[in-house]
Structures are given as structure tokens and as C-alpha cells.
Amino acid sequence: MKAIRKLVFMLAALLLSAQASAIQISSTGDNWTVDWFVDSSTTAGLSQDLSATSNWLVSSYSSTQIVLDVSITNTTILTGSLTNADITSFGFGVSPNASASLLSAGTTFSSAGTGSGPQQNYPGGFDGIDVCIFFQNCSGGSAPSGLRAGETDSLQLLLTGNFGSTTDLLYFPVKFQTNQGSYEPGGCVEGEDCGSVPEPTILALLGIGLTLIGFAHHRRNRRVTENA
User: Fold this and answer.
1) 133: left (phi over 0), alpha (psi -120 to 50) or beta
2) What pLDDT, on a 0 to 100 scale, did the predictor assign at position 144?
3) Quick check: 164 and 96 in contact, CB under 8 A?
4) pLDDT category, 149, cuts 50, 70, 90?
5) Distance (Å, rounded) from C-alpha 132 to C-alpha 216?
6) Buried-most residue among 5, 27, 32, 162 (CB within 10 A)?
7) Is the confidence at residue 2, as pLDDT, over 70?
8) How far apart (Å, rounded) are the C-alpha atoms in residues 32 and 35?
């Protein structure tokens, strides 16, 4: 029973860390940094860490429109085995919900989309993503095709919605497309202790494992009771 409780606490901690990345904005001039990291030492099939950083600035804030200036850099270092590691898309959720369009496209990221509702799913299992910014499409694209390792891209984004005095931007997932597979980590907002943020698909597997353990424990207790 103690082992199951420990697993419950571990899973809860992972879920919180995966969903913790958020920033609250309220006025022109608000700015922050979002980082991404995939640890090769704990990721099967990946020979080199994947990393990126971005700077965000609110250049205009009103009750119906928010303008964001975004600069994103792929800081991954390529090796002999990791020959490409492009960022093909990134996105975020907005609370209250919003739609988006590009006021100024980047050299790489030339499109911004919103799903029906207007929220959409994002590769890797992220739900409730209002805005996706991409090169080919939100789901990614073939490698190499995107923001390559060592490159920086800048763009200006218009959010439209019914905003109050504050607005939350959430999750910040990104998609790395590499010659060793695709990876979709959540972002880590400046000031958060995110460590290596687990992907939602990994959390789903942990949840399934925990459910199976709980079921097995229940059956064992039932047998003990029946045999008593």
C-alpha cells in the first residue's frame, strides 16, 4: 500500500510539472522567457540533448487585442549522430480563449493557426492549445524543415478575444523533428523549476501503469479476504 501511495504522489508531481508552465500578463511591456529541454540521458533513442529558448514581449494590451513580439532560438548542438533537430512548430493555450494571426511573419515561422473551439490538440498529447505557430503545419513536417539548430526567428502575433484585466498564457509546447524521431516537450517559463518537463504521452503511460498496479493490488486483497 505504501508503494502505491508513493506512485500516486510521483504521478501527481509529474502531472503538475507538465501543466505548470504559465505566465499571467496584464499590460504593455510585460516580458518573459520560455525554455525547452529534452534530456537525452533519460530519453530512449536520443543521442544528444534538444534545447531551445524564446523571448516574449507584450507590445500592446487591450480588452480585445493583445500583440506579442516573439523571438525563438534553437540552441540544440548537432553531433555526428544527431544530424538535424529542427523546430517545426510551437504553441500555447490562452485563458480566456483567443484566436490568433500573424502581424509580421518570421523567416521560418510563416503561419499561425487556431483550432475549432478555438482550442486544438498539439502533437505529443497537449490539449487546449489556442494558438499554433508553424512552418508547414501544426503537426510538424519532415526533417529537415523548420528552425534549424543554431538559428533564431522573430515574429509578431495578434491575439483576439474578450480579455479581462489579466490573461494567462499556458503550456508552451514545441515540436522538435529530428533524424532520431520527433519530441514535443512543454515549455518552462522563466522562474519555474521545471527540470526536464515530461511529455503528456509519457504521463499517460505512467497513468496506465499506475492503474494496472492498483487493479492488481485490489485483486490480491480480494483473494486474501475470500480465503480468510
Assistant:
1) beta
2) 66
3) yes
4) very high
5) 41
6) 32
7) no
8) 10
Residue 226 pLDDT:
56
Residue 112 CA, distance from chain mean position: 16
Q: Is the peptide bond before 185 cis (omega within 30 degrees of 0)?
A: no
The separation between CA 215 and the C-alpha centre of its own chain, rounded to angstroms, equals 31
Q: Which helix (H) or strand (E) holds 70?
A: strand 65-74
- pLDDT, position 205: 47
SS (H, E, C) 183-205: ECCCCEECCCCCCCCCCHHHHHH
The SS3 assignment for 60 reads: strand
Cβ atoms of 64 and 162 within 8 Å: the answer is yes
Helix (H) / strand (E) element for 159: namely strand 152-161
Task: Please give the backbone phi and psi of residue 3, each rounded to the nearest 5 degrees, phi first.
Answer: -65, -40
Contact predicate 196/37, CB 8 Å: yes
Amino acid identity at 170:
L
CA distance 113 to 44: 31
pTM above 0.90, yes or no: no
Three cell numbers written together for 227: 480465503
